[in-house]
Write the structure tokens for this entry.
Amino acid sequence: MAAMSLYTWNNLLKKPALLLATIFMLTAQTFAQMAIKKPLVNEIPPDSADVEYYGKKHFWRAAAETAGFNVGLWAYDRFIQKGDFAYISLNSIKENFKHGFIWDNDKLGTNTFLHPYNGSLYFNAGRANGFNFWQSELFAIGGSAMWEMFMECEYPSTNDIIATPIGGAVLGETLFRASDAVLDDRSGGWERFGREAACFIMSPMRGFNRIVTGQAWRKRATTGRIFGDPLFSMQISLGYKMLEYQGHFHNIQNGFAAQIDLEYGDRFQLKSKHPYDYFTLSAELALMKGQPFLSQLEIKGRLLGREIFENYHSHLSIGLYQHFDFFDSDTIDGLDRVPYKLGIPACIGAGMLFRDVPEHKWRVDAYLHFNGVILGSLLSDHYRADERNYNWASGFSVKGGANVVVDNDRLSFQLMHHYYRLFTFKGYREDTDLKQVNSKTLNVMGDHSCASFNITEFRANIKLIRGLYATLSFTNYARHTRYRNYPRIKSTSMSLRTMLTYKF
């Protein structure tokens, strides 16, 4: 069921520093829409020699790297971790094909973040061997199918075969472009070593491919960047975070948090039609007792776009976007209640970007997205099976927001609202005792239900000195779930952050 063993990932999650480094590198390019951009580099198009050299397709090498990764991971799980699921045989493979797919019961973070990360490795086996975005998705599908059908003695997972390749394309392309930005084939010595190491961390498949082909140390007259030097902006926020559930202010979870908001490409430049020439990313890492280290990750990648109009003051464009949403929390001390859980690894829809600059002293940016949720997950009040406390679901989402920038970014305000409508249509029978059933064979999405989930956030930034800002943000999470066999449930949670933000 798992694209990577739970043992392996649980060990990673116990090492916050390592995960922090990984996430930071992952984000080395993209906020859902930053209030104002300060490009870190000037945009330079790719060299035609680099595009030709690294654009050559190597199918068998890509296929071997995809299959080899699965075999290597299985060997690690089988002989080192000795995981029960890794004791495969011809009989287990035959049984997988005979029985077919079921909905699994892994944790939210495992199913909706870590499995897509594994999909990104399959995806980048294709990307690192000259294949484009769409062609590389075939390697993600193939790698995921191989693992589900052949490499585990547990029934193949319905949610994994969807989330791993689709979510893997989001993370994979983001990581691939991030790794591209650090490469420089002209460099040598320790500088070259550092660049290649950073590339390997951000995109292990690309780093491995460069080592086995000798590209990691071969000097060339050009940088080797197939995307050139695109525009990107970044801001980092550090400070205090408070989390509470339904007004229980005597049971508040306090701690520290870091937010990384990045924007890759120019949101209003539509010269290129390649997927992810423009994308945004927002991640939050929390150091709070009992709470997940990765508490939030949002990615929006533009697959294609079209300009509607542009004049001196205003600009409007529409496009097709791929979305990846992850919001996670855990039980608050003294309450035994989970505030919220949401994972959307497979989502696509239409989006609109608008800008108006009526005066030089202030500016307004806005966005609006209508999306179809292929696969999502949301906290359940009743479903408890193995490690799962959420329902699988499909449905739609609407996302909107606006930014107001005053006096050349001395003061800025951001308001956003995300609405999700999710349907769980394959539930368990009313007389099912979840404590007595075998969670490895239970094949349900969760509770028969229809749920809505709203995320509303307000953020204000005040400039202190140079690139340093004082930041105050408030986020409200509201869930309303109508169950077929239980009373409806409404719940709200709130988080407050006071932070210092640096815009690079």
